[in-house]
Amino acid sequence: MKINEVGKITGLSKKAIRYYEEQGLLSVGRSENDYRDYDDACVERLCKIRRLRELGIPIADIRLLTDNLITEPELLKRWLSELDAQQNDAGEKIELCRAYLRDGIPQTKENDEFIECEERDDLQPKALGIDIGTTTISISLTDLHGNATRVYAIRNDTEIVTDKKDEHMQDAGKIMEKVSRIVDSFLDIYPSVAYIGLAGQMHGIVYLNADREAVSPLYTWQDGRAGREGGALLDEAERKTGYRPAAGYGLATHLYLQRHGSVPKDAAVLCTIMDYAAVRMCNVPPLLHVSNAASLGFFKEETASFDTEALQTMGMDLSLLPQVTQDSVMVGSYRGVPVCVALGDNQAAFFGSVREEKNSLLVNYGTGSQISMVSDLTRLPTGWERRPYIDGSYIISGSALCGGRAYAALEKFF
Hints:
By secondary structure, the protein is of the alpha+beta class. It is built from 14 helices and 22 strands. The strands form eight sheets. A five-stranded mixed β-sheet has the order 5-4-3-8-18. Helix 4 runs antiparallel to helix 7 (172-189) and helix 5 packs antiparallel against helix 6 (91-103). The protein is elongated and about 75 Å long.
């Protein structure tokens, strides 16, 4: 059907319908005469979009729904929490939102007219931040003063289930598909994005081939295979090199895989998942910031590089090691937008949350939990780590494995 008929059915103006199409909320076919040809699925989607816009839900949020990055209940719950926090009278919208959560979003056709107040980018430079966590992929849109305008969390449901309890892997390809759709959605809606920043779960590794494509799953920081046989591999590392990485540290995982013939034959380099995101966006070799490189283990603080002598002692093929930088550099660009070198999630959280670095303590709850502060201390209590930060400084961090996992277990119980 043509746009005039669709407008009569939905109560939307031609301008509003074309605006939604321009914002990527629906895809419209063409007739033999090259006119837009709207089918029933388009009409149903437009009715749903109208219902959501009547609630005041931003276009960017709806785009995440139409791109299948979030579900209707996730969208409605998020918006309901925002409405509850508003100071103005949002009672009618709250009741509608609750009804849609309970009964679903109606797809009935509308005859009364709805006036779309188009959202346009204010064209003030913004930074788009992507954090690839274990359980969620988080997105923030901020101005260049660090003030967040939109914040989102999308479920990272890419776990690969095996029959071995100490194996923890995620599908790197599916993660990249989600990240790519997220970035494209935001760049489409906010052309003023001037920088893209990346962060994510430290310690884990993924193998790339010579074409910079993933040839393995992401072995996450929770993977425990390097600790098998009573931690024999870790004992050997400590005895031969003086390093005793945790079982989930990337190079410990790699050594285990290497000794068991499980490293992909076409692997050319290893890196973290957030560095792989930069590789995919910019089509460049992986470049690891020291905050990520150190998280893999066998890292020399004095030279800010992997301890190649220690790794050779353990029999590792050094050709798989990525390049490392101490600088906060741009690794390339995506759709003309500069992409910054990825930071470890702990360091990125500290940088983004703390105003007075020398006088602040950051407490962070994610899948794990951490307490962090900037410090020059080199001798630390048991359980604390000294981690490279930015500009040659360090943070000390105490981590626990409970954190959000306790909440996740409680949620599953109910």
